[in-house]
Fold this protein.
Amino acid sequence: MKEKITVLIADDHPLMREGIRKILSLEPRIVIVGEATDGRAVIELARELRPRIILMDINLPVLNGLEAAKVIRREVPQAEIIVLTIHEEEEYIMELFRAGVAGYLLKDISAEGLIEAVLQVAQGVPVIHPGVTRKMVRLLTEVSQAGRTTPETTLTRREREILACVVRGESNKDIAKRLFISEKTVKNHLTRIFRKIGVQDRTQAAIYALKHGLTDGTLE
């Protein structure tokens, strides 16, 4: 049997935690290892339990989700954080991705969508709510135009194709199948892409690609 995906839930509303727990319990590959009601508690439990995934609200008491995310990403880097919130303001979105979260979902997501998001992030694929993605694209475009940022021009067409797949949330296996190459080749391409554009993971690469229009006209 494959290793279970351990999940820590952080939300200060009991009914929300119960709902998330019941939804995720429908997926046999997922196991809930703990629940936290505030920012300090989620940090402590992350240190103790070392979960694979942390589902966390932004508006946590004692210490907010953004500050908690920064500490967790620094001290428990193997734990991927998925923000699950009602907020879709640009200030929250950008700050959280800068802090290293792997997903940003709104609480109107379906049960099936939540389960799929956890499974994807556990496989290293970032997840972003469609409405949030549109806001990010608009904001990043404005930032790019204001700062007159020069797009990266050293990427090959194949690397741009792979970046387009990353933006769409495809896994290495999906990309390999789409482009008729091996997963190892995909990994090698991603390593070169990350180095060229100066990022460390898929989420940062996707944000960079959107900001600089590096996937325009690819894989249409």
The domain at 5-129 is CATH 3.40.50.2300 (Rossmann fold). Residues 159 and 189 are 6 Å apart (CA to CA). Confidence is low (pLDDT under 50) at residues 143-151. The two ends are 38 Å apart (CA to CA).
